[in-house]
Design a protein that fits this description.
This protein has 324 residues and is of the alpha/beta class. The protein is built from 11 helices and 14 strands.
Length: 324
């Protein structure tokens, strides 16, 4: 998909643009001749993720700085609000944002909710569209699978609770101030530059010991894995479709993949034969199944191109060159 004419050549803000998903989004926007401003405090993003480009402006700053955020948003056309604290494995060891949020709930709240409120205030004054990346974590342990956008949110982690609170502010600003907002509930995005979560943890462990591997849980946990290039295409599509404004969308493939299946793909690609041990338990806030009903997002043109096996091959290739 090429960037729609309603976004092409526009001035775009990407908060958290030096992060995993954000940096892929930035590259796609630059390839389509957009003027891109990245606002990132590099607390978990990495400056080297960003390309060198004449139309890219990088600001080392924090979305919780309301004065800075308002200044940057002036004269912009759209804000992709991805900024949050997603700890990288390099900094905090193996783990997940859910685990981190449960251990640091006030920090998670401050970044996600107050940061989002600052972005919304700035966007309101400048009348700029906001594409807010929420998370499937808002659903908690879902009462129905696959999960529809109408499934009642019931977060069981601090991260999910913060995202749901930020969503609520987005809805308030949309209804009260007529601010154009799109809420995107991301499922399990993966791919190059992701230095966290299950695939990175597996590769990191196998690089240290290819003969034995310990995994949290039972391995039967099911997820909806979306390759990062597909996710970026979906975010851009949702930013330019007028019918998406004011709506909530699950950004997933609708395909369920177990953690055991992910592991099998990885070891097959590597040619490894580790003895795998499952702990039977995981961190607080982890859930058994998160799989999207993708009917709504597919209805406006989203068509993921990567199978999980194809995506994992790309991820393994990147890891072998970048992380070893």
């Amino acid at each position: 998909m090429s960037v729609n004419n309603s976004l092409k050549d526009k001035r775009v803000i990407v908060t958290g643009g030096a992060g995993f998903i954000g940096s892929h989004l930035v590259k796609k926007l630059l390839d389509s001749n957009n003027q891109v401003v990245v606002l990132d405090n590099l607390s978990s993003g990495i400056f080297e993720n960003l390309p060198v480009h004449s139309q890219l402006t990088f600001i080392n700053g924090d979305i919780r700085d309301s004065t800075l955020t308002k200044k940057l948003v002036e004269n912009s056309d759209v804000i992709f609000h991805l900024a949050e604290f997603l700890p990288n494995t390099r900094q905090f060891g193996p783990g997940h944002v859910v685990k981190f949020s449960m251990e640091n709930p006030f920090f998670d709240l401050d970044n996600c909710v107050r940061g989002t409120l600052n972005v919304l205030e700035a966007a309101k004054e400048a009348n700029v569209k906001v594409v807010f990346t929420s998370s499937a974590a808002v659903y908690g342990d879902p009462v129905e699978v696959p999960i529809k956008e109408t499934t009642p949110p019931n977060p069981v982690s601090c991260y999910g609770a913060s995202k749901l609170a930020a969503e609520t502010y987005c809805k308030v600003y949309s209804k009260t101030h007529n601010l154009p907002v799109v809420i995107v509930r991301l499922f399990n995005i993966y791919g190059p530059r992701q230095r966290k979560c299950v695939m990175h943890d597996v590769l990191s462990k196998l690089s240290k010991n290819p003969n034995a591997l310990t995994m949290l849980g039972s391995g039967d946990q099911e997820r909806d894995f979306v390759y990062v290039d597909d996710a970026v295409e979906g975010l851009i599509l949702l930013s330019v479709k007028e019918e998406a404004t004011g709506q909530i969308f699950n950004l997933g493939t609708g395909i369920s993949t177990s953690i055991k299946e992910v592991l099998n793909h990885i070891v097959r690609i590597l040619g490894a034969e580790p003895v795998v041990t499952y702990t039977g338990s995981s961190w607080k806030g982890d859930v058994g199944i998160l799989v999207a009903d993708s009917t709504k997002v597919r209805g406006i043109g989203f068509t993921p191109k990567y199978s999980v096996e194809q995506g994992i091959k790309e991820f393994v290739s990147w890891y072998q060159h970048a992380e070893n």
